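Input record (one chain):
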Amino acid sequence: MDGVVADVRHRLRHIEKRPKNWAAFFAAAGRDPALRPGVDLVQEYAADHELIWLTGRPERLRAVTERWFEEHDLPAGRLLMRSDHDRRPAKDYKTFRVRRLALEGTIAVVVDDDPEVVRRLEREGFPVRLANWVPHRKSLSRAQERDGRT
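The corresponding structure, as predicted from the sequence alone:
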């Protein structure tokens, strides 16, 4: 979601310096602008695929996230979120979830903005597409892979 359909750049300032202000970072999630390339891609896939939203956002942001989808006319789908206390790197968390999803059916494609996630899933044989329409900033990479927060 973040970096694929939601533009988080406006809130990265909260986690670029120490101490990181995670509360402010997550509080601003409802104000993320939509990323047109990601939205268009989702609309394309949703026409003939079951859509599953797999995000590193914490579960406590479920209502904010669902409201954001509605505000941006994104198709509903199953929303899988990280538990509030899960701090695994994104590549570990998302690979675990994708493996479990693969037990339920065929995965047509996984779209993610994190190069580490994409590399890991490709190595495991999953069809993956890197969402590269926004430059991947170091602060976001650290939040995803070192801090396990998004």
